[in-house]
Amino acid sequence: MRVSMFIARRIAFNRYSSFSKFIINIAVIATAFSVAVMILATALINGFQQVISEKIFSFWGHLHVTQYQVNAGPLTEQIPFTANPKLEARLRTLPGVTAVHDFATKSVIVKKDRETEGMIFKGIDRGNPLPFIQEGRNVQFKDSGYVPEILVSANTAALLRLRLNDAVIVYFVRGDGLPPRARKLTICGIYKTGIEEYDKTYLIGDINLVRRLNDWKQDEIGGYEIYLKDYRTGDSLQTKIGEMIPDELNVRNMKEVYPNIFDWLGLQNKNESIILIIMTIVAIINMITAILILILERTNMVGILKALGMPNTSIQGVFVYQAGYIVLLGIVIGNVLGIGLALIQQYTGFFKLPEESYYMTVAPIAIQWWKVMLINVVTLVICVVILLIPSLLIRSITPVKAIQFK
Questions:
Q1: What is d(CA 168, CA 150) in angstroms, rounded to the nearest whole number?
Q2: What is the CA radius of gyration of the chain?
Q3: 171, containing H or E segment
């Protein structure tokens, strides 16, 4: 039987007709194309989600602890509460927490010459790194009082024709019909997150200025920004922190503060699944076509093997074996193409994107190797298993008719 299997495989692998060779090449190319597209799709979607998430988290942190407010939105000013150093220390010791910073926001109107713009002033504390600064520097905090410096976005700078070291008049809005308070502030830095909602809305400055204009005490804050090592631990840490803080405080995940952005990112997972399913179907259809062509071309051989006593399952195994070889060859080529193109994009940034639509200028790449391995294994297994179906055609072939088949 082993000799028969060896001979059958040798016959099946050699002396193809030109048409069969064409079909096999198409099957290999289709499989390689499908695998390459799946690898690129997962790398692009993962990179896209990672970059957007990092932009949001670098600006706001991952979790916020603030006074509880009903229906509080992203632009809602916080109710002040007294900072608790012991609570801050406990938060910093939680596994996965990398930093805790004070913050507060206030509505303002920015005026430069005759140009005005309504914005939100975000007050930060000392030590906040602000990795998105493009020009200039961060605010130079003092031990007492406030620093009359701000950071504006590149978008705002272009809109109001501002440059580094320019002085602007910022009017801090007060409620209850009170007139706004004006302060002359110097631009010490220009930042750019790439997220239009942030770049058009926020100024960044010293939290002590918010305290001064709101008549808060020196130890009062609007809330805590909590930064995590891994955003995926946000839900579990949110529960832990909720058990630690006083009842009057509330902890919120950035997914709750900006649900529209994260819902949009979540939709990318559906797009990824659709692409994977379509590409797998393409590979399966091409492989089924290839094996049917091979079976029909080798009908005479099937009849001879049956006449020699070879069982149907063994003959089926010959064709599935060869089809598996074709699938494996396509997967190898697909990996070379997919991973190669992904690495080229990752290191060169060749493909560009319109920033106003995608929040970034370059198509991002984040290769997750476990997904690459999963794509390879699942594609191979599904294709080989599905190929058992057309191989059942062998059972309907009778030796007498098959031997006469030319």
A1: 9
A2: 32
A3: strand 167-172
pLDDT per residue rounded down to tens, the chain (406 residues) = 444 555 555 554 455 567 667 777 887 888 888 889 889 989 988 888 888 888 888 888 889 999 888 777 667 788 899 998 999 999 999 999 999 999 999 999 988 777 788 899 999 998 888 888 889 999 988 877 889 999 999 988 988 888 998 899 999 988 777 788 899 999 999 998 888 888 888 999 999 999 998 889 888 999 999 999 888 788 888 889 988 888 889 998 888 877 777 777 777 778 788 888 888 888 788 777 777 776 666 666 666 666 666 666 776 677 777 777 788 888 999 999 999 999 998 888 888 877 777 777 888 888 889 999 999 998 888 887 777 766 666 665 665 555 555 5
Give the residue carrying structure tokens 């239009």: 196
Q: Is 233 exposed, middle or buried (0-12, 13-18, 19+ CB in 10 A)?
A: middle
Indicate the DSSP class of residue 361. S
Q: Could you tell me the residue ranges of all domains in the chain?
A: 2-55+262-404, 69-247
SS3 364: coil
User: How far is the C-alpha of 272 from the C-alpha of 243, rounded, in Å?
Assistant: 36
Concatenating the DSSP letter of every residue in 92-153 gives HTSTTEEEEEEEEEEEEEEEETTEEEEEEEEEE-TT---TTEEEE------SSS---EEEEE
d(CA 182, CA 185): 10
